Automatic annotation (TrEMBL):
Keywords: Cell membrane, Membrane, Transmembrane, Transmembrane helix
Domain of life where this protein originates: Bacteria
Record's keyword annotation contains Transmembrane helix: yes
Pfam families in UniProt: Mntp
Keyword hit for Cell wall biogenesis/degradation: no
The organism's taxonomic lineage, starting at the top: Bacteria, Bacillati, Bacillota, Clostridia, Lachnospirales
Transmembrane segments: 36-57, 72-91, 112-132, 138-158, 170-191
Protein name, UniProt field: Mn2+ efflux pump MntP
PANTHER family associated with the record: MANGANESE EFFLUX PUMP MNTP-RELATED
Amino acid sequence: MNWIENVLIIAGVSLDIFAAMECQGALVAKVDKKQLSVICALIAVWQLCALALGNYLSGLLYRNELAHDENFVGLVIAAVIFFGLGIRLIAKAIKNEWVNERREESLDVKKFLRMTAVTSIYTLLAGIAFGFLGTNVALMLIIIVCMTIAFVVLGVYTGYHLGFQHKTKAYVGGALLLWIAGIDVIVRHIMC
């Protein structure tokens, strides 16, 4: 996969973070830039570790369970992961969880860490898919850090200025990007 496809996949996964940050940004009275920087750093490191761990786990699975001639199985697993992550985002868009609108004085770092722990499960799965696709790990780690920081900041400020009504669009957009990646894996790697 080329770097543009990798960016689109990471953007699809990161749109979940964007939606969560948008909800939190809609609740704060004022965005504290120092606190936002700490949150960006923590979430970026967490996502980086999840993606690296997923890539490592796919390497273990590939070496131990799949014969090198059965690369096809790894490609199918990668496509299934992308489609599954997209379905999860659509389910979140349909569910449209209610946000308890009460003003908070600042961003709660503990709340962000809990949210990031849940989101990192899906980043771990994306890392497994990337491992099966044989992508460049260093490039993926750079992209995940940059995209996570960008989506956290954009999400907080979008919520702060516009409210949280755009979260459903973020979920649908992320699902579409992941489905496009799944179709790309099928067309370019499996059907060839």
